[in-house]
Amino acid sequence: MKLKNWFWAILGLVFLGIRFLASTFPEKTEQVYSEGIFLWIRKIIDQTLGILPFPSVYFFWLSVILVLIYFFIRLRKKDSLRNKLGYTFRAILNGTGALVFFFLILWGFNYQRVPLTKKLRLDIRPLELEEVKREIFETEMEMNRLRPQIHSDTSAFEIPWDYPVLETEVRKELEEHSHLLRLTYTGRPRTKQVPPKGLMRRLGILGIYWPFTGESYIDAALHPLEKPFTIAHELSHSLGVTDEGEANFVAWVIGSESQNPHLNYTSQLRLLLYLMRDFSRMDPEGYAEWVKTLNRGIVNDILSIRKNADRYPPISLEFSRAANNVFLKTQGVKEGVKSYQQMPMLVHAWRKRN
Ligand SMILES: [Zn+2]
C-alpha cells in the first residue's frame, strides 16, 4: 500500500484531529485561525474569485465534474472487478478527505472559535411575554419612524433594487459597524445572485455561504424587502460567523446602526416577524388585538412578502415540515410559555446592554 495513493484521505483525517483539538481550545482557535489564517484566506479569495462577475460556484461544480471524469477514465483501465472495487473505495475516501480538508481550512474552523455571544458577554435567556411585548413596541416605533422615509403611502413597498448597488451598500455598512460586534472586517466579501430564479427558495433556503468558493449566494426571487437583510446575514458568514442565530443578529445590528432607512427598515421588519411568531404563540388573544393596531403599511409589506414567497412553494412540503419539526425540537419550544428564539433573545440582551 503506497501512502501517496491515500494522500487526501490521510489529510482529511489529520484535519479532523486538528478540529477536535481546536474545539478544546476556542480562544486559541480564535487567535490562530479566525483572527489569523482565515483573514488571509478572506483577502486571497476576495481578490481572485471575488472579483469575477458571475458566481464562482460554477468553478466548484466544474471541478467536481472533471474529477469524476478522471475517476471513470482510470476506473475503466482497471482489469479485474476486485481492482475496480478497491480503486472506487480509495477514491471515495480520498474525495471525502479532500472535501473535509478544504471545508475546514477555508472556513470550517470558525465553528470552533469563541461564540459571538460569549465575546460580547450577552446574557441570553428565554423571554417572558412582557419582554416580547416590549421588544415589539420598540421595533414597531422604529419602523413607524423609518417607513415614511422609504415609501410615501401605505401600499406595499415593492421597488426592486439595482443589485450591485445594494450589495455594495450592505457591505459598506458591515465594514463600518463590524467593530461593534468585535468582528474583524477584511477583504471585500461577495454575495452574488444565483440563477435560476426561485430554485433556492423552492429548496427552502433564502441564501447560502459556500465555503469552497468563499462567497455567498442568494436567490434572485427574494422580495425587495428581504434582500438587504439576507445579504447582511450571508456577509456575516464571510466574517467567520457560523451560527445561524448569530448571523441573523449581526445582520440586525448592522441594519439598525445604518443611516440608510431601507437597510434599517428591512432589518427591523425581519425582527418583527420573529417577535410576532412568539407573541401569537404565547398570547393568541392579545396578539389578535395588537395586530389590528399595526401600521397598515407594515401589514401590507408583510402580506407582499408572503405573496411573493407563495409563488415559489417548497419542492417537498414533507421535507420542509420535517425540517421544521427538527427545528422546533432542537430549539426546545414549549407551548405558550417563553420565547426561545435566538434572534429575539440576542436583540433583547443587546438592547438592554446598550
Ligand atoms: Zn446563514
TrEMBL record:
Pfam families: DUF3810. Keywords: Membrane, Transmembrane, Transmembrane helix. The chain crosses the membrane at residues 58-75, 87-109. The keyword Membrane applies. It comes from the Bacteria. This is DUF3810 domain-containing protein. It comes from Algoriphagus sediminis.
